[in-house]
Design a protein that fits this description.
One of its GO terms (biological process) is negative regulation of DNA-templated transcription. 28% of the residues lie in helices and 32% in strands. The chain folds into 2 domains: 64 residues, Orthogonal Bundle (Arc Repressor Mutant, subunit A); 157 residues, Chorismate lyase (3-Layer(aba) Sandwich), CATH 3.40.1410. The chain is elongated, with a radius of gyration of 22 Å. The N and C termini lie far apart (60 Å). The strands form 3 sheets. A 6-stranded antiparallel beta sheet has the order 4-5-6-9-8-7. A hairpin with a 2-residue loop joins β5 and β6. By secondary structure, the protein is α+β, with helices and mostly antiparallel strands.
């Protein structure tokens, strides 16, 4: 039970109780965690306090929350960690090959819309020019890893369709005769919107890694603007710096 007279917040006391049960194997990998309602009854706390305790366990990687199923003690040997080099532009197939897991692209939305000033500037097209707009969720072994919001120049890809987007976007580009691609990335840590948080199965105050990406062909022509939201539990970004002479300042 929790100590109602302690200076330690109730949610931290519950977190300590549950984390101790996990360490001592009273709760084993794959076991369901008590529901928020059960915690409220057992510890005589509010639902918000119970949720905050679980969120804290999620951030530590001790438990995993699955939308529609509940929260379970994490299985350390099944958690996938992807390393992405910042100086390369990797496709989903290349990521799948690096982790030897099944990668699925799930199309959530696809439509055509006029380019806003921001999109037009990134794609170097006139404002109001027709662009493809899409939302996709990338899963590895069924776990949401990436939420992607993209705009592509419709004039370059008039026959882009849902079948291509549910598979490999870059396989589609290759079939159209496009070869090497590059990208310019800016990466931020931020709190996601409710839509993105729920899609990635994150805790309420858990941040994402947000990459703003402009992809371009070998001739320098930009073809896609993307906001890519990475589930930070599963990603590490790497960057190798080449040797250079030391400067005496």
């Amino acid at each position: 039970m929790i100590d109602k007279h302690s200076f330690i917040p109730f949610y931290l006391q519950i977190e300590q109780i549950l984390s101790r049960q996990i360490r001592e194997n009273a709760l084993r990998p794959g076991d369901p965690l008590p529901t928020e309602a059960e915690m409220c009854r057992q510890y005589q706390v509010s639902r918000m306090t119970a949720r905050k305790a679980v969120d804290y366990l999620v951030r530590q990687g001790l438990v995993e929350r699955f939308r529609g199923r509940g929260t379970f003690v994490a299985r350390p040997d099944t958690r996938v960690k992807v390393q992405l080099p910042l100086d390369q532009h990797l496709t989903s197939s290349e990521v799948a090959s690096s982790v030897r897991r099944k990668v699925v692209n799930r199309l959530l939305h696809f439509s055509q819309q006029p380019a806003t000033p921001e999109v037009a500037g990134a794609l170097q097209v006139p404002e109001q020019a027709a662009v493809h707009y899409m939302l996709r969720l990338r899963l590895i072994d069924g776990t949401p890893f990436v939420y992607e919001q993209s705009w592509m120049n419709q004039a370059l890809f008039p026959d882009l369709n849902t079948q291509a987007l549910n598979q490999s976007k870059y396989a589609y580009l290759k079939s159209k005769g496009y070869g090497a691609v590059g990208s310019h990335k800016q990466i931020f840590a931020e709190l996601p919107s409710t839509e993105i948080r729920e899609a990635l199965g994150l805790a309420r105050d858990e941040p994402v890694l947000h990459a703003s990406v402009i992809a371009f062909f070998a001739n320098g022509v930009p073809f896609e603007l993307s906001n890519v939201y990475y589930n930070q539990r599963h990603y590490t970004f790497t960057l190798d710096a080449p040797p250079r002479p030391l400067l005496a300042l």
